[in-house]
Amino acid sequence: MDRNWREGWDQFPWSENDGTAEVRAWRTGRTGVRLVDAAMRELYVTGYMHNRARMIVASFLTKHLMTHWRVGQRWFGECLTDWDPASNAMGWQWTAGSGPDAAPYFRVFNPDVQQKKFDEEGAYVRRWIAEGEESPPGTALSYFEAIPESWGLSPRDAYPGPVVDLAEGRARALAAYKSRSF
Hints:
This protein is mainly alpha-helical and 182 residues long. The protein has one domain: DNA Cyclobutane Dipyrimidine Photolyase, subunit A, domain 3 (Orthogonal Bundle), CATH 1.10.579.10. The chain contains 9 helices and no strands. Helix 2 crosses helix 3 and helix 4 runs antiparallel to helix 5. The chain is globular, with a radius of gyration of 16 Å. The model has no long low-confidence stretch (mean pLDDT 95).
């Protein structure tokens, strides 16, 4: 549950710092990537996230942000109501590439492409993102009621710009995966 399944992955250059601005943005649904943010907000409010969304946010964290899967695993453990230790660890490792049946390293989910494919009309994103909306739905506003005041967020805030350019994040991840020595 806390070790890479496949040998050699302990040397992979993931950051294990869960206090970076990018990781905080991921946790708080403020990455500037609407599908990722909608999924993370749904998770925080409901304790649930659809499997497709789980793969997208896990790929974003481990590949675009080059953050260790254990950081995501711990956050899911805190937030998911259907959290299962073994399933959670293996799901994260599947996405990250270090699991027994891992996705190939070159599979980096592009959240924008995934949104076009699975939320073409933007209904899911609108359900969870309040910023910039004249009349956001109750689900989007419920996020701001659920989060700690210490996060200092408001539905009247401007929606953030992306914490990482998707093409640059993907290229960085692919370079790291290709250059591994195991």
